[in-house]
Structure formats: structure tokens, C-alpha cells
Design goal:
This protein is an all-alpha fold. It is about 60% helix and about 0% strand. The chain has ten helices and no strands. Helix 4 crosses helix 5. The termini are far apart.
């Protein structure tokens, strides 16, 4: 269970992202309901933040399944590398992003992803899904025309799938990690509150854009 636990820790803290701000502002308004504040933050774990782990899991699982099936009809090759190339080409043909690569902050390398993969390998957790992930990263520059660094949302599902988790379980791992961080933020909110300050800052930063008053 060490590798899955490492995946949870990798996703636990994400700064003052929307889910954290929602939880802190909810707690500021209703400090008697810690559980309610945690619940207010969890819907913010969606497709933009945290959700790409689930998308990557389905991509990697499909690549491994296609390779096991001989590459699928008409592919001409059953290697993981060939199937990864086909999968990425299909994404490019529909102008879809490749899940698991690219990050606005970690443009060159994501140290979280590298550390997680190295730790999993030290535990003996390295299999076809990790290989599929490496193959995807390798073909992205050729097919998309630019290099995109592997991110932690790519490493996590590769490790979990090789550890025996099902793709449909991927949504749960980020939720567990985010719940941990929300509780930590709310414990801090109890002694160093910023919930109302966050609301005040938003009020000052956002200008009215509706129709002019008559």
C-alpha cells in the first residue's frame, strides 16, 4: 500500500485553489460545521483540477489493452509503443489535449511525477501502464509539435494501475488526497482565519460588468 499512499500524498496540497477557498469561506460563515466546509470544497475536484488523473487512467488502460489484443484492427503492431502512438494520433486528430502531460508551472519537468515514479519503481511497482505512459510522453513532441513534460496526474494513474487499481477508482484517489488537505486548511482557518479576507479580496478585484444603472 506504500505506492497508493504516496499517490494520495502527492495530491493532498494544492495551495489556495478554488476548492480550498470554497471550504475556507464556508467555514468562516459556519464554523460549527467542519464537515460542511469539507463538503463544500470537494465539488471543486473536477475536470480542470484533479480530474485529469482519471482521463489518463483510461488512456493508459486502453493502450495496454490494445497492445494485449495485438494492436487492434488495422494497427499493424501490438507493441505498447505503437499503440501509444496510435492513441496520441487519435487525440490529435480530434484536437484533444493529451492527459497526463503539460503543466502551467512545471513546464520543463514535474519533480512530483519524477519522485513518484522513482519511489514506485523502488517498491517494484512498475509495469505496462508505466511503460505506456513513457511511450505517450515520447511521441507527443512529434505528433503535437512541442514537448510537454509529464505531470503528476500522469504518473499517479500509471502507478495505481500497475499496483492493481481499476481505472474507475482513479477519481477516488484525488478526493481522498483533497479531503486531507481541506481538513488541514480548515484547522489552520480556526487559528489563522482568511475566509472573509478571501471574499473581500474577490470583491475588490472584480468590477461590475452588467448594464449601466438607469
Amino acid at each position: 500500500m506504500k505506492a497508493p499512499c504516496a499517490c494520495v500524498v502527492a495530491l493532498a496540497e494544492h495551495g489556495l485553489v478554488p476548492s480550498v477557498q470554497a471550504a475556507r469561506m464556508t467555514y468562516a460563515a459556519s464554523p460549527e460545521a467542519l464537515h460542511g466546509a469539507v463538503a463544500a470544497g470537494l465539488p471543486g475536484a473536477g475536470s480542470v483540477i484533479l480530474g485529469s488523473s482519471e482521463d489518463t487512467a483510461h488512456l493508459l488502460a486502453s493502450i495496454v489493452a490494445a497492445a494485449a489484443d495485438g494492436g487492434g484492427s488495422g494497427s499493424g503492431s501490438g507493441s505498447i509503443e505503437a499503440c501509444a502512438r496510435t492513441a496520441v494520433q487519435e487525440l490529435r486528430s480530434t484536437l484533444s489535449p493529451v492527459p497526463g502531460v503539460g503543466h502551467p508551472l512545471h513546464r520543463e519537468r514535474d519533480p512530483r511525477a519524477e519522485a513518484l515514479l522513482a519511489y514506485a519503481e523502488s517498491l517494484g511497482v512498475r509495469g505496462p501502464h508505466t511503460r505506456a505512459l513513457a511511450a505517450v510522453v515520447d511521441v507527443v513532441p512529434e505528433i503535437y509539435g512541442r514537448r510537454l513534460a509529464l505531470n503528476v496526474s500522469g504518473a499517479i494513474p500509471a502507478v495505481l494501475l500497475d499496483a492493481g487499481f481499476l481505472p474507475r477508482a482513479m477519481k477516488g484517489i484525488p478526493l481522498i488526497g483533497r479531503t486531507m488537505s481541506l481538513v488541514a486548511h480548515l484547522l489552520e482557518e480556526q487559528v489563522a482565519p482568511i475566509g472573509f479576507a478571501l471574499a473581500d479580496a474577490a470583491e475588490k478585484e472584480v468590477d461590475y460588468s452588467g448594464p449601466a444603472p438607469s
